[in-house]
Amino acid sequence: MSWWHGTALVYGRGLREQLRSKTFKVVTLLLLLLSIAAVVVPKLIAGGPATYTLATVGPAPAALSTTVSAAAKDGGFRTAYVERADEAAVKDAVQHGDATVGIVGNRMYVAERNAGAFPGIVAQALVRLETARMLTGFGLTGDQLSQLGSIRPPQQVIVAPTQNQGRANVGFAVGLVLYLALLFSGQVIAMTVATEKATRISEVLLAILRPSQVLVGTVLSVATVATMQLLVLAVPMLVGASATGSSWLPALAAPDVALALTWFFLGFSLFAFLYAAGGALVDKVTEAGSAVLPVTVLIISGYLLGVVVVLGNPSSVWSVAASLFPLTAPLTMPIRWGAGDVPVYQLVLSLLLTALACLGCIWLASTIYRRALVITGRRVHLAELFRRGKASSRR
Q1: Comparing C-alpha atoms, which of 233, 228, 218 is closest to residue 188?
Q2: Which residue of 228, 242, 368, 393 pairs with 277 in a disulfide if CB–CB is 3.0 to 4.6 A?
Q3: According to DSSP H, which parts of the chain are helical?
Q4: Sheet of strand 101-104: strand arrangement
Q5: Where are the domains of the chain?
Q6: 140-199 confidence digits (pLDDT tens)
Q7: How does it sit in the membrane (predicted)?
């Protein structure tokens, strides 16, 4: 039996068991409902563009309604107009919610709530019309008034710590997805290994398979289930956002997508095997959580660095250090790269260091896994494993 064939047998066995479990079915259903709700609920709450109502005595002047409607179109809201017989009726309409703003001569009535920026827009329109009337009286021609009206305010250039906030948010999303996948899947990996050791199933598997085959097959089966659940969560949200033209979904180039998948693969591989090694150290399933606590703390620390330090200032010394250090790079470098503030050599160096650390973690986890599975009846300490390894090598 080849190494790959044995690994595939363990992988298939683990995948079937997890897909049949009630926990997988319940969690997947909840994730699907959550994803659908994330698309539908905001639309239900928002309802559509806001509508503001302007009340006037008689029909609103054509110049006023044209100016206000143009401003409303630029602002993404709608404007309605109502007519009232006199000033008291206009005031009453605003007071009882039938109108947002009421205009009578040079007096403007404003609703106490839900007025937003509409009163300011109406006031600016009135000032502009009155200014145009006065300038016409001073002798300005229609062309000169048009030139004055064409003056635009200065262009606003938003200066932020990130050059591209949309891509930075995507980088943050990569770190968040990896963080959640590791926390949930890592615990599953540790519990699976601990259960197989406690129930002696691992001894049966090791009688015909190599420890590395059992380890890799187990990790891959859990990783596949985690990927399936992430797709169940992400695909409906992405499809809904794309169909509705949501602004939080920026256009991404193929290199960005490929880089995000690379970081996810490296980050998951880096920590998943450490979770498996931690599960092999315990003799009781209930002790698995405490055994992998150092790995969990490391993941949480890396995620907090990404959120607090890197997202706040991607170019700081601490951000650069966190994005180059292999144990935090998968959670922090995607954010720096999305911010557009990473030299290419730093990205390549970070990928290389993380890949080497990943190979080192796989070797370390395989060594711990192989030596710890044969020790039963008590919890195993790391120092004991490496003392045993040195003794065996001397013999």
Answers
A1: 218
A2: 368
A3: 3-20, 22-46, 62-75, 87-95, 118-137, 142-149, 165-198, 201-206, 211-244, 254-280, 288-291, 293-304, 317-324, 329-338, 344-372, 382-394
A4: 78-84, 51-57, 101-104, 107-110
A5: 51-149, 163-394
A6: 777 766 666 665 656 544 454 555 555 666 667 777 778 888 888 888 888 888 888 888
A7: Multi-pass membrane protein
